[in-house]
Amino acid sequence: MATGETGFDDVSYDLISVQYHALKAGHDYGQYVRDAENAGRTEIADFFRQVMKEDSARAKQCHEFLKELATSGDAGPAVT
């Protein structure tokens, strides 16, 4: 796999990026849930909870793929 300037291969970098954004969004969604609850909008709060759950699963899947890449030696010198 090609290794970019970061020392990570492109696939690892992409997974790390998706994982970061999913975790960051999950953190932000907690506030969105509180905002919707404070506004009495239960259905919207439930929607935000579902989105948060999906991003959590997305971040976990990225983590699993990154572990797989790290143990295979295909992630580039920054991970090995």
How are the SSEs ordered, and which strands pair?
Elements: H1 10-38, H2 42-72
| Percent of sequence in beta strands | under 5%
Average pLDDT level: 87
Instruction: Work out the helix count.
Output: 2
Shape: elongated
Low-confidence stretches: none
Description:
The chain has 2 helices and no strands. With 80 residues, it is mainly alpha-helical. It has a domain at 26-72. The mean pLDDT is 87.
Question: What are the main properties of this structure?
Answer:
mainly alpha; 80 residues
Describe the structure in brief:
The protein is mostly helical and 80 residues long. It contains two helices and no strands. The model has no long low-confidence stretch (mean pLDDT 87).
